[in-house]
Design brief:
Number of strands: 15
Order of helices and strands: EHEEEHEHEEEEEEHEHEHHHHEEH
Largest sheet: 7 strands, mixed
Shape: globular
Distance between the termini: 7 Å
Strand order of the largest sheet: 11-5-2-12-13-15-14
Bound molecules: S-adenosylmethionine
CATH architecture of the largest domain: 3-Layer(aba) Sandwich
Helix content: 25-40%
Structural class: alpha/beta
Number of domains: 2
CATH class of the largest domain: Alpha Beta
Strand content: 15-25%
Number of helices: 10
Radius of gyration: 22 Å
CATH topology of the largest domain: Rossmann fold
Length: 355
């Protein structure tokens, strides 16, 4: 979720990095972190492409409750792009990242982060080697037992180094491409240049994972339908979509509401009244959208958010977005289900706070 204004005036935000709330971190990022690693493992050795269509600023300003001082604090952590790089660091051969961000300020911040990652890498904490010396009971001779290598992958450049570890910088072997364009103006080129080929070395076609995370509406015809069409022709196209109910809800009240609906659903303006005649509740808006996606993807499931959330219209302000996984691959689906269970266990007791 994008927070336009901090709700609490105590929060001091100095940078112009995109701000995210704690609940976003717990749901959206928690899911991405788990999914990227596993998706990358199961799709190798094919060429893999991760496309972050609304890339943001690289780092994000996470606003969280500081329970000790009973006020809100903030810290810079990795956003979706840097998490994608971090979570695929160990298997990065034959992998490509495509990051798209049209806002000038955001693009410059993103570029700055990516340049650091390209030149220096990401910090990884490696456990200092401690060899254990012991005496063999059989020979009474001294023996040395080497400790296994152990690393921690921190999710921020600034994470404090734990004692007994050293800080290394690890580079990804993946290509990272960044475009300062609107996704609608460049998606055809991305598909044509990077997704529709057969790798000469492996004789395999690329697997792609689109992460679509607009801070608001995204056009069906210009963006979503193109990814959907690709998925129905090209096996191994997955999409994680942040479907923003908040934006639809806000815009419905405006004069331009109908044209926004027309854009989001790709339905001609003149048909909007008829198509949305009996639709008032969020579940129905959501269902209509999911039904459209299901025409192209075998599985369209909600992930990264609790299943037992009550979807009542009165609570619509409360549920601002839905993270959807769209895939034709049943192993990606079970992978997602497994990750959601893990997140649930981790966050047990916090469900009603999420989003
Ligand atoms: C919610 S933020 C992305 C956050 C990022 N995915 C993350 O989690 O770190 C949405 C971003 O989309 C960008 N954006 C807005 N319109 C866009 C468009 N037409 N194409 C691509 N990006 C766009 C905004 O400038 C903003 O940086």
């Amino acid at each position: 979720m994008c927070l336009n204004k901090p709700k609490n005036s105590n929060v001091q935000i100095k940078s112009t990095y995109i701000r995210v709330g704690e609940n976003t971190n717990n749901s959206k990022y928690e899911f991405l972190k788990l999914f990227y690693t596993k998706w990358n493992q199961i799709t190798k050795p094919s060429p893999r492409v991760i496309i972050d269509t609304h890339a943001g600023t690289g780092l994000v300003n996470l606003v969280f409750k500081n329970y000790l001082f009973k006020k809100k604090s903030n810290k810079l952590v990795y956003g979706s792009t840097l998490l994608a790089i971090l979570k695929t660091l160990k298997i990065s051969n034959n992998l490509k990242f495509i990051f798209v961000e049209p806002d000038n300020n955001n693009f410059l911040l993103l570029k700055k982060c990516i340049n650091i990652v390209k030149k220096k890498g990401l910090p990884v904490f490696e456990k200092l080697e401690q060899n254990f010396v012991y005496k063999s009971l059989q020979t009474n001779r001294k023996r040395i037992k080497k400790q296994e290598k152990e690393s921690i992958f921190p999710e921020s450049f600034n994470t404090h180094l734990p004692s007994g570890y050293k800080r290394n910088w690890e580079k990804t072997k993946a290509d990272i491409l960044i475009f300062d364009k609107k996704i609608g103006s460049i998606i055809d080129k991305i598909i044509k240049d990077y997704l529709l080929f057969t790798d000469e070395k492996t004789n395999l076609k690329p697997k792609s994972l689109f992460f679509v995370d607009p801070c608001g509406a995204v056009a069906w015809n210009d963006v979503i339908k193109k990814i959907c069409t690709l998925s129905s022709k090209h096996e191994g196209t997955d999409m994680i979509l942040n479907w923003s109910w908040g934006t639809i809800n806000r815009n419905l009240k405006l004069r331009s509401g109908k044209s926004i609906l027309s854009k989001i659903y790709g339905i001609p303006l003149e048909n909007i009244n008829k198509e949305f005649e009996d639709i008032y509740e969020m579940e129905d808006f959501f269902k209509k959208y999911k039904d459209q996606l299901k025409q192209y993807f075998k599985f369209v499931v909600e992930v990264g958010v609790p299943k037992d959330r009550r979807l009542r219209p009165k609570l619509s302000g409360y549920k601002k977005y839905f993270l959807l996984l769209c895939t034709n691959n049943s192993s990606a689906l079970s992978l997602a289900g497994y990750q959601v269970e893990k997140i649930k266990t981790k966050l047990r007791g916090k469900f009603l706070d999420m989003n």
